[in-house]
Design a protein that fits this description.
Elements lengths: L1 E6 L5 E7 L2 E4 L5 H5 L4 H8 L6 E2 L4 E3 L6 E6 L3 H10 L4 H9 L4 E6 L4 E2 L4 E4 L6 E2 L2 E7 L5 E9 L1 E2 H6 L4 H5 L5 E9 L10 E8 L2 E9 L7 H8 L9 E4 L17 E6 L3 E9 L1
Parallel strand pairs: 6-17, 8-14, 9-19
Antiparallel strand pairs: 1-2, 1-5, 1-14, 2-3, 3-4, 6-7, 10-13, 11-12, 11-17, 12-14, 15-16, 15-18, 18-19
Length: 280
């Protein structure tokens, strides 16, 4: 089962079950009320409305988040470790150490108001000369630290700022419009096995593909459960959390995002998240 958060033409915000490109709206409830129930799928079925399904094309898809904090993990793929080592010549060994350490790299990414949804604009910082998208699987976590679903995340990053000094990581990662989520949440029971999940990043510029790369969740060094366990150590999330799990697709070092670029992220079992880039 897949859930979406939509805005109707009336302005009302509703939750829907996605079936064959259409949304069957639920009785008015928040997304978190469904996700954080003991049985999210059963709760959604119990709330299904009686009206006709609405094509997704006729709805405004919102980022599938309420008040959850968004966190992120870094250096969970070998490809990411290599890229971070190259961008941070003076501190390259730290990325190698964290890749092989028991403790993962975890950092705060966004508050809910800073998150953009499908079709909305992601931003690159005005003081960055080298920014890239980072396609990632996003874990949807309940207050009980249970993985209840999966979505797609774009962890937009200023590689030049992070590379200048690792202490600049928050400035490279945390700013308005630097995180996109969507288009839907696939509930945990409906997600394919990890080894069958492919992640693909396509970037178009003026209608032409300028980057196309892919990886598989099978290439990820850490498990989802391990990341959630570390995130929850001495930390609580009464509203739940979203955890981006790192990227294994990195554009070449001579590539940077430009205003007007279209970024598409496809993940098996979830769908496609598309955003256009805006210059800060």
């Amino acid at each position: 089962m897949q859930l979406c958060k939509v805005q109707l033409r009336s302005g009302d915000i509703r939750i829907g079950v996605v079936i064959d490109g259409q949304a069957q709206l639920l009785a008015p409830r928040s997304l978190s009320e469904v996700l954080h129930a003991e049985d999210p799928a059963g709760t959604a079925r119990a709330l299904l409305g009686v009206g006709p399904p609405i094509p997704l094309a006729d709805l405004t898809l919102l980022p599938p988040i309420d008040r959850q904090e968004v966190w992120a993990a870094g250096v969970t793929y070998k490809r990411s470790r290599e890229a971070r080592e190259r961008e941070s010549a003076g501190a390259a060994r730290f990325y190698d150490l964290v890749y092989n350490a028991d403790r993962p790299e975890l950092f705060f990414k966004a508050t809910a108001p800073r998150v953009v949804g499908p079709g909305q604009r992601v931003r690159v910082r005005r003081d960055s000369r080298w920014s890239v998208p980072e396609p990632e699987v996003a874990l949807v976590i309940s207050p009980r630290l249970t993985i209840v679903g999966y979505s797609i995340g774009n962890d937009v990053s200023a590689r030049d700022i992070e590379g200048e000094n690792p202490l600049y990581l928050p400035q490279a990662k945390v700013y308005d419009g630097a995180c996109a989520l969507g288009p839907v949440i696939t509930l945990a029971q409906a997600m394919p096995p990890k080894e069958q999940v492919a992640i693909r990043l396509t970037i178009e510029r003026a209608g032409r593909v300028v980057f196309d790369g892919s990886t598989s969740l099978a290439a990820m060094k850490r498990t989802f459960e391990d990341l959630v366990n570390w995130l929850g150590r001495d930390n609580s999330f009464p509203n739940g959390a979203i955890l981006l799990t790192g990227t294994g697709v990195v554009p070449p070092d001579d590539f940077t995002l430009a205003a007007g670029d279209a970024v598409h992220i496809d993940v098996t079992g979830i769908g496609r998240l598309s955003n256009v880039v805006e210059q800060g």
